[in-house]
């Protein structure tokens, strides 16, 4: 069986989307500010947001802020499609990635409210992968199911995915249908799509309704194009994520639709107040230590202010942030066509207070957490809030520096050697084709499209859009195998012609 990392490589190699590197591009377009948005907090945050977007080389970003259950401000920045100069707007469609987990958690918690499910029920009742009754449903929701269940937090989307089988068995319906009937249709989230493949074949998902399928196809025309930042200054088209729909990821949405979802959450249209309070309380370990998540949501107590949040992060191409400050009835949703939104904070740590966008939002809209500020430096002069500014800006600078440091240097490849690499290679799930044109190599990912491969040494090559090393293995003068290496894990393919 492939490891987690190997499956990630395979998922990209075998998905139905192309990976084509674009050249250097610039994304400076900003949608005009909505009329009447004279709130000085919005003005200040908007300026900081766009500054950080440009520093992180995010081509397109859409944002919405809600206060007291109403939309305070929404706007798009940059481009949903750089090459075609299509601006990002509040109606641009993005992958939510792991923000999808909050929807799945609500479905599970609804069943618990209805008495149809016990969160203390063993997962072994639903999957033979669990050999005893130690792992409970609550452990999947809180990411505490590994090792000794309930002992420690370990974020693992693959474990969370077991919730899909539970939901489908209890509801007797496919998970996609549950998303449509619980969220998209009742909340009039008419620009959201339950997976990019849902409208490929009307017969497959006819249960969702002919009108819905027709609308999904139209909505997909507004699907943002995904990009990644290469450290020598290039913003490259990175290729779309796999087209599947999971409990962990797969929902596509806009910030306007996410505002509707957020309003329903806050108005207790989806969960009772006491259930939501439990979901937004840190899960306690077996030794009563608070852990980073509640039930399907991250929970951070920052200087006496509770932050409830979740990221979406595809690795490349898309990332998202859903941040709530319940006591102040404030919500921020950011959706982007770059990984940088949710990627940079990992340079310092996983918590949301290491994210420059989140830190800016908290300090602007909840100034009581910020202590006194140095007007010249625009950062707090004392108190823990200074850590938010320091850590998040440090994370930003480290991320940019790391991208530059990881920018691998390409060297010329002997055309005769390149020609020996051309051919077809049998990987675990499909055959990939390497082609040579005038000494340059390309690989079809997927078949029929291609991404350029660059040489680092005569036998080691790389892609600019993925942190992979491709090694062509020889026996004598004959190339016999192609290895894909990522973070110590290898997927190999035998050359078949």
UniProtKB/TrEMBL annotation:
Pfam families for the chain: Beta-lactamase (PF00144)
A molecular function GO annotation: hydrolase activity
InterPro entries per UniProt: AmpC-like, Beta-lactam-related, Beta-lactam/transpept-like
Alphabetic keyword roster: Hydrolase
Segments forming domain Beta-lactamase-related: 50-341
The organism's place on the tree of life at top rank: Bacteria
Protein name: Serine hydrolase
Organism listed in the record: Lysobacter niastensis
């Amino acid at each position: 069986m492939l490891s987690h990392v190997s499956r990630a490589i395979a998922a990209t190699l075998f998905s139905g989307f192309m990976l084509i590197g674009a050249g250097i591009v610039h994304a400076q377009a900003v949608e005009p500010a909505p009329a009447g948005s004279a709130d000085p907090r919005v003005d200040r945050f908007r300026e900081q947001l766009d500054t950080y977007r440009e520093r992180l080389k995010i081509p397109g970003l859409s944002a919405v802020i809600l206060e007291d259950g109403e939309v305070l401000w929404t706007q798009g920045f940059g481009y949903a499609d750089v090459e075609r100069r299509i601006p990002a707007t509040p109606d641009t469609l993005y992958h939510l990635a792991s923000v999808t987990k909050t929807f799945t958690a609500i479905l599970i918690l609804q069943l618990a409210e209805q008495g149809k499910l016990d969160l203390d029920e063993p997962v072994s009742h639903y999957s033979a992968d669990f050999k005893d009754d130690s792992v409970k449903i609550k452990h999947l929701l809180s990411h505490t199911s590994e090792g000794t269940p309930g002992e420690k937090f370990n974020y693992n989307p693959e474990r969370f995915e077991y919730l899909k089988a539970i939901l489908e068995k209890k509801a007797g319906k496919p998970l996609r249908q549950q998303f449509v009937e619980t969220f998209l249709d009742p909340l009039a989230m008419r620009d959201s799509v339950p997976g990019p493949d849902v409208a490929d074949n009307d017969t497959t998902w006819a249960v969702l309704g002919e009108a819905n399928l027709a609308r999904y196809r139209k909505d997909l025309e507004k699907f943002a194009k995904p990009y990644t930042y290469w450290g020598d200054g290039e913003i490259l088209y990175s290729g779309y994520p796999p087209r599947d729909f999971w409990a962990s990821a797969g929902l596509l949405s806009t910030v306007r639709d996410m505002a509707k979802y957020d309003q329903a959450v806050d108005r207790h249209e989806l969960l009772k107040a006491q259930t939501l309070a439990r979901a937004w309380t840190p899960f306690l370990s077996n030794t009563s230590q608070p852990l980073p998540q509640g039930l399907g949501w991250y929970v951070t107590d920052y200087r006496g202010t509770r932050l409830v949040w979740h990221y979406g992060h595809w690795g490349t191409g898309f990332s998202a942030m859903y941040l709530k400050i319940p006591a102040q009835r404030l919500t921020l949703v950011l959706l982007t066509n770059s990984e940088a939104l949710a990627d940079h904070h990992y340079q310092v740590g996983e918590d949301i207070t290491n994210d420059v966008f989140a830190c800016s939002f908290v300090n602007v809209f909840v100034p009581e957490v910020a202590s006194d500020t140095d007007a010249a430096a625009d950062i707090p002069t004392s108190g823990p809030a200074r850590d938010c500014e320091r850590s998040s800006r440090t994370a930003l600078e480290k991320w940019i520096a790391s991208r530059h440091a990881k920018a691998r240097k390409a060297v010329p490849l002997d055309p005769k050697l390149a020609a020996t690499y051309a051919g077809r290679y049998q990987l675990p799930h499909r055959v990939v084709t390497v082609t040579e044109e005038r000494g340059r190599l390309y690989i079809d990912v997927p078949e029929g499209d291609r991404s350029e491969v660059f040489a680092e040494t005569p036998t080691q090559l790389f892609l600019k859009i993925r942190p992979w090393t491709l090694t062509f293995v020889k026996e004598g003068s004959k190339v016999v195998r192609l290895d894909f290496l990522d973070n110590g894990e290898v997927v190999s393919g035998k050359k078949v012609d």
